[in-house]
Each structure stands twice: as C-alpha cells, then as structure tokens.
Write a structure and sequence with these properties.
36% helix; Histidine-containing Protein, Chain: A; 3 helices; alpha+beta; globular; 4 strands
Length: 88
C-alpha cells in the first residue's frame, strides 16, 4: 500500500469540478484508491463519494492506494493534486 497527504489550497475546496477530475484520474487505475478527510473516508473513483468529504480549503486529504499499479497511480495522483488542487 502507498500513501500520501495533500492539503487543499484551492479557495473553493474540493467542489464538483476538481472532485470529478480527481475521480477521472483515479478511475484510470486498477488499484483501490481511498481518500480520507475530517474523519470520513471516500472511494477516490466516485465523484459523489469524494464530494461527501466536504473538503474545504486547508483540509488535509490522506490518500491510500493499494493494488497492482499502485506505484504508477500514486505518482499520477500526486502530480494531479499538485497541479489541479493547488488553487492556481
């Protein structure tokens, strides 16, 4: 299992568009992708599950990736978070 954390820097938080883009990236991998925030856990491949986290600006997301392609998945997800959830 691979893990990493990311703090949301986008002032709008993890709303529909960034959550959808994150789920789209996650769905390209076979590995199970779980995302935790504020004591809740979501399926990283499902938009509504991600949105149910209620993650706002400053919220820390804890990603857990497990499966055959976890090494590639974690790299892609880190890159996505750094470029798409950073508020720029």
């Amino acid at each position: 299992m691979k893990e990493f954390k990311h703090i949301i820097k986008d002032k709008n938080g993890l709303h529909a568009r960034p959550a959808g883009m994150l789920a789209s990236v996650a769905r390209t991998f076979e590995s199970e992708i779980r995302v935790e925030a504020k004591g809740k856990e979501a399926d990283g491949k499902r938009l509504l599950s991600l949105m149910s986290l209620g993650a706002k600006c400053g919220t820390e997301l804890h990603f857990k990736i497990e499966g055959n392609d976890e090494d590639v998945a974690v790299k892609a997800l880190i890159e996505h978070c750094d470029t798409k959830l950073n508020g720029e």
